[in-house]
Design goal:
Layout (H helix, E strand, L loop, with lengths): L19 E2 L1 H8 L3 H10 L6 E4 L2 E5 H17 L1
Antiparallel strand pairs: 1-3, 2-3
């Protein structure tokens, strides 16, 4: 088995803007309540959360942002 090791300087690391958002941040960002978020997840119309272990979950910020942008695009397409 070969294991590769990479050494990076901080200036060489790609800028990462993605982060994990817990439920209170998702509800504040989307304007949806907890029940509405979980209903949309069940329908397949909202991003699924990522397990953090145990019962803790979070959402990928980029996926939530993309969902918001899709709502805006739907509005503007009409």
């Amino acid at each position: 088995m070969i294991i590769y090791s990479y050494a990076y300087r901080m200036s060489e690391l790609p800028e990462i803007t993605m982060k994990l958002m817990r439920l209170p941040e998702v509800t504040a960002k989307t304007g949806l309540g907890r029940s509405a978020i979980y209903e949309r997840i069940a329908e397949g119309t909202f991003p699924k959360p990522v397990s953090l272990g145990g019962r803790a979950v979070a959402w990928v910020s980029d996926e939530v942002e993309a969902w918001i942008m899709a709502r805006i695009e739907e509005r503007d397409a009409v």
